[in-house]
Write a structure and sequence with these properties.
Oligomer: heterodimer
Order of helices and strands of chain A: HHHHHEHEEHEEEEEEEEEEEEEEHEEHE
Radius of gyration of chain A: 37 Å
Strand content of chain B: under 5%
Largest sheet of chain B: none
Number of helices of chain B: 8
Helix content of chain B: over 70%
Bound molecules: protoporphyrin IX containing FE
Structural class of chain A: alpha+beta
Strand content of chain A: 35-45%
Helix content of chain A: 25-40%
Distance between the termini of chain A: 37 Å
Largest interface: A-B, 48 and 47 residues
Chain lengths: 450, 286
């Protein structure tokens, strides 16, 4: 350990560098919270004038968290972390793995806290008595005897010394996850009208077309409001298809997305299609169902079922204070005479046909806005996060405690040294240690010295 | 009685407790101590009852959700966390003088929550983005962390006062006012522990926030101002934790960092909502 060290390694392993980098990261991060990020060049020109917007562009401040210099700072932090860990870990490893019974008597005498007792009796008896008293602290006693001395040792939580290294490793795992996500993932968007199917989505920023490798259909979008008019729920009924065969159906809301083949679809926004209605039709006998957009006074067909229908008229309705619309529907499934009837907006009508009955619902036509993400790195990030919390908890709550007892016989005199230490929570350790000392002091044959 | 009355009473009890703790500190009138502790304990009970009642009231309104969804509710929980942490420290270290530096933060939190005009105190239904259990975990973790940082800041101020009086010629001139404070090394150690505890919860808060964002829109981190300020705060406290391992970073600088750290917390919480705008403005603050 005492060899002269390469100054470059000393530099990169130093905690001072870590402090420096953390402070610089904290200070520079402020910039991007004050200056809006990723706006168009003319916005910057408008807000900050020509001189400043040139400076911003030159220093990548318009997208600073992805700029070369910010990423360099994060890299520097990682290098610092790795070098620091590589330098310290062997020593910690040794501390955890070492044979504590090899400690010399001199080192034990220098420990704090420590206490010497004189035992009234032979050394072998002293060791036996000490063993009994010590076993009330821990029964996992390690022991070594030589001709003149017996050493007893207990410890707890040696492994907790690795806690901070788990925290440090977790930072690297999170960075690795973020890099994997950037390299192999994407963020995209699609506006999918109810009743439509898409086989691709559009990358955010670039608008590049990304094929899904399967089809995604939106069967319905529903918007629910609170009495106050605030939105309560955005819900999309989605179906994943492969060549018209349905592979997966899921109703998604914000905070509950659909995942399929590494892609995840999030409910993000919606759009009401002005002047358009959406009809959901279900054949109650066969169970066949579909949803189709409807423009008033235009015939719509559901070819698979031989159904044709249309909204042939509509009028405003007044029901007390509430106003709404009702619609006149014309409907045929190719059997008998077509049905014609009035129905309210949002209601479900039962259409009796010669061979079957249809449930027919008429609502607003919406398109659902879906955010689409592929992020194969997210599990690295989550494992890193878990490890970080576990590591900090170890660093906060747990400590490595060690207690030695050395029984030495010098002529007739039997001396017993009780000593120990903890790497953290020294107060807690001292309480435990003092309890042990009290047990010795209460023992008839042990007399405290000094 | 409804929850807002109960919480209003809590604010006044905390004011009284703050005055008593400060009186105890300045006049060393030890008789005040027991009353101060008793009041703090009563404030804990009324605050807890207020939180539970608000929760029940939201269910009566048919929009039931944990009272952790807006600025006012988070401030109440903030005060609650400070009180719990403080009472723990008082019982553990058997020293009431720390209260003079800590309980005023709980009072200020409640008072700001009760009288600020920037936000509403009504119980409102949750918009879709906020309907997530991660929200509850996120707010709880963040505010326990913030409470710990407020306690650490109080300890930092205490450290600086005591250190200054010792430099100025020690105990005689100060008339022993600061003598009854724990000694510097003990304050320093407690500050460090409190910051590490806060760091644990802040990390948990940032992580649960990231998981929530990822479940809501598929991005666990987007560098919006709220996220960025929370990571700035995290960097500051992270640096503070490491400062001990660097030569020359004695207790005073760490005490100052505890103060700077809290300013960053306040900016993350207040400044971002009202001085900067961002993605999070839909929450009215979380
Ligand atoms: C964002 C990055 C970092 C985080 C979150 C972090 C976290 C931690 C935590 C929680 C502790 C325990 C503190 C305590 O027990 O009081 C710790 C200790 C430590 N960290 Fe870091 N750390 C980071 C970066 C670094 C870097 C870059 C270095 C490089 C020099 C470093 C070196 C150390 C050392 C030497 C210790 C003390 C270990 C010991 O107790 O033996 N840390 N770190």
């Amino acid at each position: 350990m005492k060899q002269k060290e390469n100054p470059i390694i000393t530099f990169f392993a130093s905690v001072s560098l870590a402090l420096f980098v953390l402070f610089i990261l904290a200070i520079t991060s402020i910039i991007g919270t004050v200056i809006p990020q990723n706006e168009t060049p003319d916005k910057y020109l408008q807000y900050y004038g020509e001189k400043w917007s040139t400076v911003f562009h030159a220093l990548n401040i318009t997208d600073m968290y992805h700029s070369w210099w910010f990423l360099s700072l994060l890299t520097l932090l990682s290098v610092n972390l790795i070098v620091c860990t590589l330098k310290r870990l062997p020593h910690v490893w040794q501390t955890v793995m070492q044979d504590n019974l090899k400690t010399t008597a001199e080192r034990l005498h220098k420990m704090s806290p420590s206490r010497v007792f004189v035992f009234n009796g032979p050394a072998a008896e002293a060791a036996a008595a000490a063993r009994v008293l010590l076993s009330r602290t821990s029964t996992r006693i390690k022991e070594k005897s030589t001709a003149t001395a017996t050493m007893l040792f207990i410890q707890k939580g040696a492994w907790t010394r690795f806690g901070v290294y788990a925290v440090h490793a977790s930072i690297l795992l999170i960075f690795i996850g973020a890099i994997i996500g950037t390299l192999y993932g994407f963020k995209a968007f699609v506006m999918l009208p109810a009743g439509s199917t898409t086989s691709h989505v559009y990358e955010m920023g670039s608008n590049r077309l990304i094929p899904l490798g399967f089809d995604l259909r939106c069967d319905q979008f529903t918007l629910t409001l609170y009495d106050t008019g605030a939105p309560k729920e955005f819900r999309s009924e989605l179906t994943v298809l492969n060549d018209k065969s349905e592979l997966l159906k899921k109703s998604i809301v914000v905070n509950d997305p659909l995942s399929f083949q590494g892609l995840t679809f999030y409910q993000s926004s919606y759009e009401a299609k002005q002047g358009q209605l959406f009809a959901q039709i279900k054949n109650t006998k066969t169970g066949a169902a579909t949803g189709l957009p409807v423009k008033p006074r235009t015939e719509v067909s559901w070819p698979d079922a031989g159904v044709r229908f249309g909204v042939i008229n509509f009028e405003e309705t007044k029901n007390g204070a509430a106003s709404g619309y009702r619609f006149k529907i014309w409907f045929t499934d190719g059997t008998g005479t077509p049905s014609e009837f009035w129905m309210d907006f949002g209601a479900t009508a039962k259409i009796e046909r010669p061979a079957t009955t249809y449930d027919f619902t008429l609502t607003q036509h919406y398109a659902t806005g879906l955010q689409v993400a592929k992020d194969p790195g997210v599990w690295w990030v989550y494992v890193g996060c878990g490890l970080m919390l576990a590591g900090i908890m170890v660093a906060f709550f747990l400590s490595h405690r060690r207690i030695w007892i050395l029984v030495t016989a010098e002529g007739d005199r039997t001396e017993v040294l009780v000593c120990g230490g903890a790497n953290k929570n020294k107060l807690g350790f001292e309480n435990q240690f003092n309890a042990l000392l009290a047990r010795f002091a209460n023992h008839a044959q042990f007399t405290p010295q000094g | 009685m409804d929850s807002s009355q109960l919480l209003g009473i809590t604010t006044f009890i905390l004011l009284a407790a703050s005055v008593l703790y400060i009186g105890l500190f300045i006049f060393r009138a030890h008789a005040l101590g027991v009353t101060a502790t008793a009041l703090t304990f009563i404030a804990l009970l009324t605050d807890t009852a207020g939180i539970i009642m608000r929760w029940v009231e939201s269910y009566r309104m048919g929009i039931g959700h944990a009272p952790l969804s807006n600025m006012y509710e988070s401030l109440i929980f903030f005060a609650w966390s400070i009180i719990v942490l403080y009472l723990f420290i008082e019982f553990r270290f058997k020293n009431r003088l720390i209260g003079a530096f800590v309980i005023p933060f709980a009072f200020l939190g409640m008072a700001y929550g009760s009288y600020a005009t920037e936000f509403s105190r009504e119980i409102t239904p949750l918009i879709p983005a906020l309907q997530s259990n991660w929200l509850i975990a996120h707010v709880v973790a963040c505010f326990i962390g913030y409470a710990a940082f407020a306690v650490a800041c109080g300890l930092g101020i205490m450290y600086l006062l005591k250190a200054r009086s010792q430099e100025k010629g020690g105990n005689r001139t100060s008339g022993g006012l600061l003598d009854s404070l724990p000694d510097l090394r003990q304050i320093d150690d407690l500050t460090h522990k409190t910051i590490l505890f806060g760091f644990l919860w802040l990390s948990a808060g940032i992580i649960t926030g990231a998981i929530w964002a990822n479940s809501a829109w598929g991005t666990y981190w987007s560098w919006d101002p709220k996220e960025t300020w929370s990571i700035i705060t995290w960097f500051i406290y992270g640096a503070t934790l490491h400062a001990r391992f660097t030569k020359g970073w004695g207790g005073k600088r760490i005490a100052w960092l505890a103060i700077v750290g809290l300013l960053s917390v306040i900016f993350t919480y207040y400044g971002v909502n009202f001085l900067l705008s961002g993605l999070h403005s839909y929450g009215g603050g979380k």
